[in-house]
C-alpha cells in the first residue's frame, strides 16, 4: 500500500452473542478516513441492528473493486455464516468455528495485502474451548496463524503502556515460564516496536519483578536475582534503557511513569488491572512482533450488555485509530 492509498481495515465482529456485533453497528455512524470491512454474518448484523433500533445498510464487500469509504450508516461486510441462530447474551459453542473463521480470513487478508490491518472485537475464550477447540486468546492464535515464534501483548491508554512477559497462562505456571530467553525476546520486541511503530527513539522501559517487593534481595523469591537482573544487565550493555526489576506495587507511581515509555509486567494481572483502572473502555490492545498489524479492544464480550445499546464504542474507536496510525508508520 502506498501512503496515499485509502487504508483498508478488517474488523472481526468477535463472539456473536457478545457486544462485538453491537460495536460494529454503532461505529458505522462515524465518519472515517479509511475503508472498514466487517467480517461477520450479515444476517447477525441486520438482526442486532433491529434490536438496537439502529438503521444500518449492509452491503457486501467487493474485494476486487477500488477501495472506497462507506456511506454513513453503511457497513461493508465480508460474509461468514453462523452455524447456529444467535441470541444476544447467550453463548453457543456451535458458533465457535465461525468466530475462528472470521479471524483466519482477517489474517489471510492482511498477509495477502487485501487489508492493511485487522482490528478485533472481543471473543469468549471459554465457549471456544467448550466447543473442543483449544484457545487461549487472539494473541496466541495470531502468532500461530502467522507462524511467529514470539509476540508481545501490549495495552495502551493515555500516558501508560503496559506490555506482558506472559499472557493467558494459569498463575501457577508463570514462574517457570519466566526464563532468560523469553525475557530477552520480549524486551527486544517491545524495544523495537516502540521505536518502529510508535516513534519512540530511545525507549525507557520499566521492568517489574515477579515477587513481592521484587524479591526483597532474595528473601521473597530469587527470580529477580537469577533471571531478570542478568537479562537486564546484558540488554543494557546493548544500549537499551531499562529500569528494574522494580517492585510492581510501587512501579506504577506517576513520577516514575512520567519518565518512562512502557512498563513490562511479568504476568497478565500484574499489569492489566492498573492499565484498565486508568483507561478502561478507551484503551487499546496491540499485538507486537507480528508481521501484520493487529489492534483490539480493551474489554471482553460483556454478554450482559449485548443487544441493549449500552456498549461503549470508545475502545473500538481507539483500536481503529491506532491501527491507522500504525499503517502510516509501516
Ligand atoms: N479482546 C478480547 O477478545 C477480550 C478481552 C478481554 C476479555 N475477553 C473475554 O471476554 C469474556 C468476558 O470477560 P469479562 O467479563 O472479564 O470482561 P468484560 O470486559 O466482558 O466485562 C467486564 C465489565 O465491563 C463491562 N463492559 C465491558 N465492555 C464494555 C463496553 N464496551 N461498554 C460498557 N461496558 C463494558 C461489562 O458490562 C462488565 O460489567 C471472557 O471470555 C474474556 O476472556 C476478551
Ligand atoms: N488479555 C486481554 C485483556 O485483558 O484485554 C484479553 O484477554 C484479550 O487478549 P487477546 O487479544 O489475546 O484475545
UniProtKB/TrEMBL annotation:
Compartments, as annotated in UniProt: Cytoplasm
Cofactor dependency: Zn(2+); Mg(2+); Co(2+)
Gene3D superfamilies found in the cross-reference section: Isopropylmalate Dehydrogenase (3.40.718.10)
Annotated metabolic or biological route of this protein: Cofactor biosynthesis; pyridoxine 5'-phosphate biosynthesis; pyridoxine 5'-phosphate from D-erythrose 4-phosphate: step 4/5
Keywords, ordered alphabetically: Cobalt, Cytoplasm, Magnesium, Metal-binding, NAD, NADP, Oxidoreductase, Pyridoxine biosynthesis, Zinc
Reaction(s) this enzyme catalyzes, per UniProt: 4-(phosphooxy)-L-threonine + NAD(+) = 3-amino-2-oxopropyl phosphate + CO2 + NADH
EC number: 1.1.1.262
Pfam families from the UniProt entry: PdxA
SUPFAM superfamilies according to UniProt: Isocitrate/Isopropylmalate dehydrogenase-like
Keyword Glycoprotein: no
Cited InterPro entries: PdxA, PdxA_fam
Binding site for substrate: 138-139, 276, 285, 294
Residues annotated for a divalent metal cation binding in this entry: 168, 213, 268
CC cofactor note: Binds 1 divalent metal cation per subunit. Can use ions such as Zn(2+), Mg(2+) or Co(2+).
Domain of life: Bacteria
Miscellaneous notes: The active site is located at the dimer interface.
PANTHER family: 4-HYDROXYTHREONINE-4-PHOSPHATE DEHYDROGENASE (PTHR30004:SF5)
Subunit and partners: Homodimer.
Protein task: Catalyzes the NAD(P)-dependent oxidation of 4-(phosphooxy)-L-threonine (HTP) into 2-amino-3-oxo-4-(phosphooxy)butyric acid which spontaneously decarboxylates to form 3-amino-2-oxopropyl phosphate (AHAP).
Name the UniProt record assigns to this protein: 4-hydroxythreonine-4-phosphate dehydrogenase
Protein's organism: Kistimonas scapharcae
Amino acid at each position: 500500500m502506498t501512503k496515499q492509498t485509502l487504508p483498508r481495515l478488517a474488523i472481526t465482529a468477535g463472539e456473536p452473542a457478545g457486544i462485538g456485533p453491537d460495536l460494529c453497528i454503532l461505529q458505522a455512524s462515524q465518519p472515517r478516513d479509511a475503508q472498514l470491512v466487517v467480517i461477520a454474518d450479515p444476517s447477525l448484523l441486520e438482526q442486532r441492528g433491529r434490536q438496537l433500533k439502529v438503521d444500518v445498510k449492509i452491503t457486501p464487500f467487493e474485494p476486487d473493486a477500488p477501495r472506497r469509504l462507506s456511506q454513513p450508516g453503511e457497513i461493508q461486510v465480508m460474509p461468514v455464516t453462523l452455524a447456529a441462530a444467535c441470541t444476544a447474551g447467550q453463548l453457543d459453542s456451535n458458533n465457535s468455528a465461525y468466530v475462528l473463521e472470521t479471524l483466519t480470513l482477517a489474517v489471510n487478508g492482511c498477509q495477502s495485502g487485501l487489508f492493511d490491518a485487522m482490528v478485533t472485537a472481543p471473543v469468549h475464550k471459554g465457549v471456544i474451548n467448550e466447543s473442543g477447540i483449544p484457545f487461549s486468546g487472539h494473541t496466541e492464535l495470531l502468532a500461530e496463524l502467522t507462524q511467529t515464534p514470539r509476540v508481545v501483548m501490549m495495552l495502551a491508554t493515555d500516558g501508560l503502556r503496559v506490555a506482558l512477559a506472559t499472557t493467558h497462562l494459569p498463575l501457577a505456571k508463570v514462574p517457570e515460564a519466566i526464563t532468560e530467553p523469553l525475557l530477552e525476546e520480549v524486551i527486544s520486541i517491545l524495544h523495537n516496536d516502540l521505536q518502529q511503530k510508535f516513534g519512540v527513539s530511545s525507549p525507557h522501559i520499566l521492568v517489574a519483578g515477579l515477587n513481592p517487593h521484587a524479591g526483597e534481595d532474595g528473601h521473597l523469591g530469587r527470580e529477580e536475582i537469577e533471571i531478570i537482573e542478568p537479562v537486564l544487565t546484558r540488554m543494557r550493555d546493548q544500549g537499551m534503557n531499562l529500569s528494574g526489576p522494580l517492585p510492581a506495587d510501587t512501579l506504577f507511581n506517576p513520577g516514575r511513569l512520567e519518565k518512562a515509555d512502557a512498563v513490562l509486567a511479568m504476568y497478565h494481572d500484574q499489569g492489566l488491572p492498573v492499565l484498565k483502572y486508568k483507561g478502561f473502555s478507551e484503551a487499546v490492545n496491540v499485538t507486537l512482533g507480528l508481521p501484520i498489524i493487529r489492534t483490539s479492544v480493551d474489554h471482553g464480550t460483556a454478554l450482559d450488555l449485548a443487544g441493549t445499546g449500552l456498549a461503549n464504542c470508545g475502545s473500538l474507536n481507539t483500536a481503529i485509530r491506532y491501527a491507522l496510525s500504525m499503517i502510516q508508520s509501516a
